[in-house]
Amino acid sequence: AGLSELKLGAGVKKPPKSASAVIAPGVTVFVPLGDMIDVEVEKKRLNKEIHKLRFELERMERQLADTNFVSKAPSEVVETTKRKREVWTDKVRRLEETLKSIQEA
Question: Is the entire prediction scored with pTM above 0.85?
Answer without folding.
Answer: no
